[in-house]
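User: Okay, second chain of the day. Same drill as before: sequence in, structure tokens out.
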Amino acid sequence: MKKIILFSSGKCPDCPPVIERLNKENIDYENVDITESMANLKRFLKVRDYNSYFDEIKEGNRVGVPTLMDEDGNFYNPEEMNTFDIFKN
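Assistant: Same drill. Structure tokens below.
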């Protein structure tokens, strides 16, 4: 199974439903809460600020969470995904 990272924020109202859904579907993931520490925020910004996936998000003055990233560096908007089957074995 691919390693999955969820970039989230404890202050984002859109993140808890995604976390709940990942847990319900037994998806193994690492949750990087960008508001939990400066290290987590820097980790996210390092990815966000240099990837074209986030261009439209930044142009709309949005942060970019929740976002899922797989170990290959592919990004997914979990709010637009009908299924998380791609993350299952």
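The chain has a mean pLDDT of 94.

User: Thanks, on to the next one.
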